[in-house]
Amino acid sequence: MITARFLLCALCLAPIPLAAHPIPLRVRAQSANAFWPPSPATAPVRLVSDTYYGTKITDPYRYMENLADPEVQSWIKTQNDYTRAVLASLPGRQQLLQRIVELDESTVEIGSARRLPGDVYVYTKLLAGQDTYKLYIRKGLTGEEKLLLDPERIAIAEANRGKGKNAIGVFVPSNDLKYVAVTIIPGGSENDTEIHIIETASGREVGDVIPRCCIKSNPMWLPGNHSFVYGRLQTLAAGGPTTEVRQKYRTYLHVLGTDPEKDQPVFGYGIVPSIEVDPRLYASIRTQPDSKYALGVIGLPIAAPNSAFYIAPVTAVGKSNLEWQKIADLAEDVADIAIHGDDLYLLTFKGTPRYKIVRLDARNPDLSSAETVVPAGEAVIQDMAAAQDALYVRVLDGGIGRVLRVPYGSQPKLEQVPLPFEGGASLFSTDPRVPGTLLLLNSWTRAYKIYAYDPSTRKVSDTNLQPAGPHDEFANVTSIEVKVLSHDGTLVPLSIAYPKGMKFDGLNPTLLYGYGAYGISQGPDFDFTQLAWYQRGGVNATCHVRGGGEYGEEWHEAGKGPTKPNTWLDFIACAQYLIEKKYTSPPHLAGQGASMGGVMIGRAITERPDLFAAVLVDVGVSDMLRAEKTDLTDVPEVGDSKTDAGFKSIYAMSSYYFVRDGTPYPAALFTAGINDPRLKPWQSAKMAARLQAATTSGKPVLLYIDYEAGHVGGTEKQYQERLANSWSFLLWQFGAPEFQPRR
């Protein structure tokens, strides 16, 4: 299972050995549904029909898309109240929650960090018992720590109050470190993100607050350190279609001390006459400390492997006579660009689905003259970052993360950075003014640590920025990587972690996770709270379905648009493997998908409901046809119903329309955030209503709505509660005696 956040907290607790844990490791399925409170009334059916290219589509719950309707609000609230009551009644839930809290607060959690010139570190941190990350600064790894920002104490716009606790999105120090621009997300409502400016010396706000931003509104400082560019959502006219809120995106220029409402757009939709921007795409400007260039980037609003790139003198940004020079358009398949002096390093998959890196002259960025500096190979190049001494590159090699150092210049000799152990590797913080890089390393059974690579000694050392904790290694848990034969003969990677000494008799509670979209790879995931699952004999498996990036763009292309069925068919194959190898059996197997992974898990249970006892669907999409018209504008990834072929692709991945009456479906727990602007909670509501009406299994279909959360974010308490809900729900359905409701 991939969690929403991957770093944790601090209270020094002694580890509890698996063998000494009071809960038996294995359980035989009992009557999981002997009792629960009487369920609320099913939702009324009001059929609405649409015809696409001769295919009639009937939607029984279209009215639920109007979340402002009091009837819809009442039904959702009644469902939510019922779900909370049912979950709270499970006898073992409170003990499980207590253990989750203990583990979650067993160490300090560093969320993100920046290493800056002068050995200065700016980072977010979560202490034991705290609910949100705070922003800190220190000089040197052992220097005195200073609190810069507590998001719970910051004053936000009146319209955003009451949505939930504030959370830090991103933070960007000015090049002279006098200021830090911080994005604040209220209650997970990312479309209501605000930018606040903090004075580093005093920790006080300077007074500039910019509303109506969104999660992609990363501020970028300009030379002089008194102005920055940022992205902002448009203001819709009264009654305007909500689908346009995240369209016609523009980048603005803000000067400290001026009125943000008078900021002028400098890039994006309709701004640069020579650059036509599709209204569905985002357009942003990226700057880099000490670089004389700015990059204009145009791409999809969520995630995509490629973008269009333009370049201009950074000192000319905001001037009326600025001319942007094109580096690459979308068809050139360029994923990213790093800058060093007058050299541009392009990460591209043009003709090389596992990516390569080429070098261009920024003064004449002609792709036909590009020099290959990191050729394509078996390993997938995932990302890169420019440091003072070299370009650092992260690759995925057979499921193992590796890091390469690429010296600047022509025909560089590639060097592999010596990592202390094999697992997942990330470029945690790299700055073009500082040599080397910070690395984040972890595995399925080892907690992440933050390491520093020093190019002068060619050694990697633990920074101790992330403190050691009592559960940094799961000594009684092992992991294995296998490949599973899918429906068409393709071998699909499957990662499995389970308690040592576990019996392979099919009785082990097992959670299988998958995602499969946007070319995003699922690397090794470690979360201290997972120990609570392993201590109950749980198996934790991740199926690396097609649509992800485990084998580069070729793997992504094999699970998007018309090839999307491979995603859920790969997942089904992995479920069958776990059953065949006696890790588990259908009465003890659950599936989980989140966000775009809702497609995968929804279609898996509509194709093979017999394989799963239960499923978890977190902020998931189930009706892509309506998402296309109300929320998402994600044509390259899913298709476009304006064409017959596009309609067929989108329809095939909309599990809502494949639910069949009179079918024994697994138990299901749908979780959504009321402030979610990407996949609004009606997605979960409609699918829950449809399953409730159709299933004959007698198993519960529950809808859980968090009224202080969105698609991302949330507090530690919210995270802990949702985890306890999910695992208690599964153990109930698996028949664990401690989780059966009392008569």
- Major beta-sheet overview: 8 strands, mixed
| SSE-based structural type | alpha+beta
Number of strands: 38
Low-confidence stretches: 1-34
The largest sheet has its strands arranged as 31-32-34-33-35-36-37-38
Overall geometry: globular
Number of contiguous helices: 11
Cα-based radius of gyration, to the nearest Å: 25 Å
End-to-end Cα distance, whole Å, is 32 Å
Average pLDDT across residues?
91
Assembly level: single chain
The percent range for helix content is 10-25%
Percent range for β-strand residues:
25-35%
Secondary structure elements and their pairing?
Blueprint: E1 48-52, E2 55-59, H1 70-88, H2 93-104, E3 109-116, E4 120-126, E5 134-139, E6 145-149, E7 166-173, E8 179-186, E9 193-199, E10 205-213, E11 220-221, E12 227-232, E13 250-255, E14 264-268, E15 282-286, E16 293-299, E17 308-313, E18 325-328, E19 334-340, E20 343-348, E21 356-361, E22 371-374, E23 380-386, E24 390-397, E25 400-407, E26 415-416, E27 424-429, E28 437-442, E29 449-454, E30 459-462, E31 477-485, E32 491-499, E33 510-513, H3 530-534, E34 539-543, H4 553-557, H5 565-580, E35 589-594, H6 597-607, E36 614-618, H7 624-630, H8 635-638, H9 644-652, E37 667-673, H10 682-694, E38 701-706, H11 716-734
Parallel strand pairs: 33-34, 33-35, 35-36, 36-37, 37-38
Antiparallel strand pairs: 1-2, 3-4, 4-5, 5-6, 7-8, 8-9, 9-10, 11-12, 12-13, 13-14, 15-16, 16-17, 17-18, 19-20, 20-21, 21-22, 23-24, 24-25, 25-26, 27-28, 28-29, 29-30, 31-32, 32-34
Helix pairs in contact: 2-11, 5-6
